[in-house]
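Fold it.
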Amino acid sequence: MSVITMRDVSVMGTSYVHYPFEFFLESMHALGIHGIDLWGAEPFYCRLDYPTSYDATLRLKKMCTQMEERDQKVTIYTPETLGYPFNFSDPNPSLTLRTIEYFKWAFEDAHVMDCHRVFVNSGCGPRNLPREESFKRCANTLRTIMDIAEQEDILVPLEQLQPYESNLVTTIDDVEAMLDMVGSPNLRVCVDITAMEVQGENLEQYFDTFGDKIEWIHYSDSHHEVVGSGSYGKEKLAGYIETLERRDFRNGIDLEINDSIYWEDPHTPHAETCRYLRKELGLKD
């Protein structure tokens, strides 16, 4: 049985979209957060801004130094892919090839940061086309990407999305079908708590289905709100932690406090979440 502490908490920086990377790190340092889910988008870091691998490496090494100075480390790299110019299932081959190339770079970047996880989701297929065709194209693209991931020894947690975000992977059955179609040992599972709750599913079902294939957890209150402010309630929020510990899950939780209402002042909602984790749910430092 594992014990989850604040040392096991990572934070995704999407709500800091209007602030530079160092502001995000300072915010996390003030909150006692050591795990960084590096969002691969500006104003943090976007590989498309660097013409060569050398240029990208220089930038990433500087970012790693900034994190090391604050006793922080990248626990997972999340390159932004939810939208143009990337798509796993669009029939346009240019989009597919660009997306595959982007993940080649992402795996390269992960090694620079001494990180062995790169996050992925299915994105959305064109809604005017048959879902089955898009699902198959997505699986084929992911299979190509996973061939590279296996060569690079990178684990790739696949997250389920909400129906407004995707018409592909939104349920536990969809996750299972995609893993089966891709057939890669390096394709793992990221359970998004909010997407799970939208489908009326629970963590026990995910562990019963996937076991140690579960690699990552996106943790938040309802609608990706501040933990303790939404509709889940203390019993359910604590229950997620208890399930992870009982299942001996050792990769911690990744806070996804992700809504545009937090963009103006992202520090405060994360401070409120960390206070709740410590004071209400009893996570120790």
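The longest helix spans residues 131-152.
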